[in-house]
Structures are given as structure tokens and as C-alpha cells.
Design goal:
Elements lengths: L2 H5 L1 E14 L2 E15 L8 E7 L6 H7 L3 E4 L5 E6 L6 E3 L13
Antiparallel strand pairs: 1-2, 1-4, 2-3, 4-5, 5-6
Length: 107
């Protein structure tokens, strides 16, 4: 790997309060933390999630979330990512890459 390739990677952390959906049903709101790694050489790339968690501490829904299969986390910036719960402590596995932020057009 070249030095330039190492410098082309960028990591960003997204934190906020998101909505968790099972299909079209809102299950709950939860704090989230997503760490994404992206390639700066690719314009518009949002990145691959390398570490992710949601705060489900003290919630009776933790058991339900663990058995739900694929869920959707809607982020504060409007993006959504499919995920499954990996542990009862809130570690999640995101399925796919972080989509780009949708820019609204002004008229």
C-alpha cells in the first residue's frame, strides 16, 4: 500500500438520536453512534460503516429488537441504514454502506 493510499482514507463519526423501524412501524427512538471510513479520492462517497451502536440500555424492547432481523435506523440528517442487532448491549451490524446525504434544492 502506498503512503498516498493511506492518506486518502477519512474517518467520520456520526452521533445523534434516530428512529428505529421494523418495516414501516416505528419501534423507538435511540441514540446512535456510527463510525464511517471513506475514500477521499471518490467524490460523493459517504463511506463504509466500520463500527456502530445504538443505546438500548434499560429498554424492554432490546429483546424484541434482537429477534427482529433487519431493522432500519433513520439518522438525524435524513439518511437511513438497514441494520441488525449484534448484541444486547447495542452493537449493531449495518448492512451496506452509508448513503450520501440528500441535498434539498432551493427554488
Amino acid at each position: 500500500m502506498l503512503v498516498g493510499e493511506l492518506m486518502a482514507k477519512q474517518t467520520k463519526v456520526l452521533r445523534g438520536i434516530g428512529e428505529i423501524f421494523a418495516g414501516d412501524r416505528l419501534i423507538r427512538h435511540a441514540a446512535y453512534c456510527l463510525e464511517a471510513s471513506s475514500d477521499q479520492a471518490t467524490p460523493g462517497a459517504s463511506g463504509t460503516i466500520v463500527e456502530a451502536s445504538i443505546d438500548i440500555s434499560g429498554t424492554p424492547e432490546a429483546f424484541v429488537l434482537a429477534r427482529a432481523g433487519i431493522l432500519t435506523l433513520c439518522l438525524e440528517d435524513g439518511r437511513s441504514v438497514p441494520f441488525s442487532l449484534d448484541s444486547a448491549r447495542g452493537r449493531i451490524v449495518v448492512h451496506g454502506d452509508l448513503p450520501p446525504v440528500i441535498r434539498s434544492s432551493t427554488r
